[in-house]
Task: structure prediction
Amino acid sequence: MGNQGGAGAGAPARWRGTVADVELDGIDPRRVPVHIGCVMDGNGRWARKRGLPRTEGHGAGEEALFDAVEGALDLGTRWLTVYAFSTENWKRPVDEVRYLMKFNESLLLRRRDELNERGVRIRFAGRRDWRVPRRLLRRMDEALDLTAHNRTMTLTIAFNYGGRAEIVDAVRRLVADGVPADKVDEKAIRSRMYLPDMPDPDLVIRTSGEFRISNFLLWELAYSELVFTDVLWPDFRRANLFEAVREYQRRDRRYGGLDV
Result:
């Protein structure tokens, strides 16, 4: 799989971060994943280990998210999808849900200009239903409009998202469109997913030592490579991202076929 415009030829690329330079040693720039997905898990446990409220873990996760974004840009990855809020997360305590709504609104306000300057297109996957505050929906639309023409990388934020909900919504569109049963195939379903033009993820990373998919991109990750790490999300940095890519490149991807 080719790297579509990224880490470059010659000497290993470097990102000059605020703490130390991080080299891309051992990563083949020709086989960098085009699309990486992240299940950002472990915020609550990170906070609990420090005797802090769970909300402090969500706040700490912002630094991890944007270090991962910078790392993906440095790699030359073209698509990065992060699981920010699931359809199941509404079951959490009301105060935590309220915090997350306000936090995501403020995050977009703080970071959208920075992402725009970096050439990142922001998109969202998930249901826009009555549970999402109108103010947050407005911020989402503003970020979409501001970054619509950027093409360096697409950052998709899965918000009020569930893999099963996405498939249900696609089937509903099929029915609404009057598609006859004998015309229903993978292409017909795929064209009615939330973001039909988004390529399937090559690599999906889950943090915090859990070995579950948790309803993330169920249709799209049929042939994704899965990498699980014990690192709690607030501690995740681009070095962890690079190590996951190294692991990805050590694997043999056959898509159901056989080695010749």
Remarks:
- DSSP finds seven helices and eight strands in the chain.
- The chain has one domain: 33-248.
